[in-house]
Amino acid sequence: MTSTISTYERYRRQTILKDFGTEAQDKLSRASVLVVGAGGLGCPCLQYLVAAGTGKIGIVDFDTVTLDNLHRQILFGTADIGNSKALAATHRLHALNPDIRIDTHHCLLTENNIDELLQEYDIIVDASDNFETRYTVSDSCSRLDKILVFGAVSTHEGQVAVFNKSDRSGRDPVRYRDVFPIPPQAHEIPNCAEAGVLGVLTGIIGSIMANEVIKIITGYGDNLSNQLLTYDSKSNKTYLLDLSDLRTKIDNVSKIESDVQEQAYDDMTSLHQNIDTDFLFQLINNASADIVDIRGSEETPAVTAFPCLRIPMQELDHQMNILSAKNLVLICQSGQRSAILARELAKKYSSQKRIYSLKGGVNQLLRNKFQNHHEEGA
Predict the structure, then answer these.
(1) Given the DSSP bridges, would you call strands 123-126 and 147-154 parallel, antiparallel or unpaired?
(2) In degrees, to the nearest 5, what angle opens at C-alpha 28 toward C-alphas 214 and 113?
(3) What Å distances lie between residue 74 and 46, 49, 108, 152, 206, CA to CA?
């Protein structure tokens, strides 16, 4: 049994913080957190939650450790290759802090088991790496009214948000499906295995996720409720987006039919339009639109098929005065960032111009180019 003295010494550097103290530490010791995914995001998140003294931690992961995990999944070593991630993580975390209760779930989350599993925990952390799990987790959190801390990474960019929690101003909680109502189609957005990721980025984003969990539990500082934080590791720029106005009227998300999804999507995007490449080229041919690539300046491939300005999303709002056309089309890699930014800008500029987002983004332009080349060569 750990003595009071050793417990005090273990956490002393955070309990002496102003506005934290032993009261916040006590809240941590009574809290329970489930981390879905013990990969690039889950590893640093788990490490800091366990080190901070979170009383009960659950780990869900069905995968095993592989060699190409090790550059970013820092709980594992070469000797762990082939072993269960959930079990290997539990072993390493127990060594870090034996006073924490860790529940290991080496299982695949499905609609049949997820509600029962999530019910046991106060806060859910989505550190998964695929959209099927992400939507399954978010829908269950909505049904169970569980706070959801979300994180995602791709190449050099990461995102963090807190869903299902009212913000300081008392606005109703935003849910994951309020922002992303319809799952992307298979292969529409490349995963880390296809697009690559810098290992240190997962450490940064995973640590931010742990920070959000600790703040929510203890009430220390401000958390990202109803906000989406985007971090660019190449430029060190951040972009904070208010999600409150993006809420849709989707109810009973576990049983949404496709036609209901489409209607909710139309409602959410009423201030702007998501357009396909055919309509984009109509605008280009009519010379009636400014086309803006909102990706970071170092993201590739560059758009060269038509005139296109390169203005990173963090800077576009401050440069709207240089865009004179009555139409504005935003492009990003997959169409997600551009859709979010288009909705945000439309609230301010819809009386001045029509704002569009290209569905599928640069990925769709590349698919069209490949298809056209294939048809010409057939």
Answers:
(1) parallel
(2) 80
(3) 11, 15, 22, 17, 11
Q: Quick: pLDDT tens for 315-371.
A: 999 999 999 998 999 999 888 888 889 888 888 888 888 999 998 888 888 777 644
Tokens describing residue 350: 């819809």
Rg (the chain; Cα; Å):
22
The alpha carbon of residue 323 and the mean position of all alpha carbons in its chain are separated, in whole angstroms, by 30
**Same-domain pairing of 207 and 99:** yes
CA 148 remoteness from chain centre: 11
Q: What pTM did the predictor assign?
A: 0.69
Alpha-carbon torsion, ordered 222, 90, 61, 65, to 10 deg: 120
The answer to whether position 145 is within a domain reads yes
Q: Quick check: 149 and 124 in contact, CB under 8 A?
A: yes
How many CB atoms lie under 10 A from the CB of residue 169?
Answer: 8
Q: What DSSP assignment string belongs to 245-286?
A: GG------GGG--HHHHHHHHHHHTTTSEEE-HHHHHHHHHT
pLDDT in tens, 219-274: 999 999 999 999 988 888 888 888 876 554 333 333 333 333 333 334 344 456 88
- Residue 265's identity, in one-letter code, is Y
Residues 253 and 304 in one domain: no
Q: Tell me the CATH number at 352.
A: 3.40.250.10
Has residue 236 been placed in a domain?
Answer: yes
Domain span at 230: 8-261
Residue 276 phi, psi (nearest 5): -95, 180
Looking at the fold, whether 235 and 100 belong to one and the same domain comes out as: yes
- Distance between CA atoms of residues 60 and 39, nearest Å: 10
**DSSP code for 329:** E
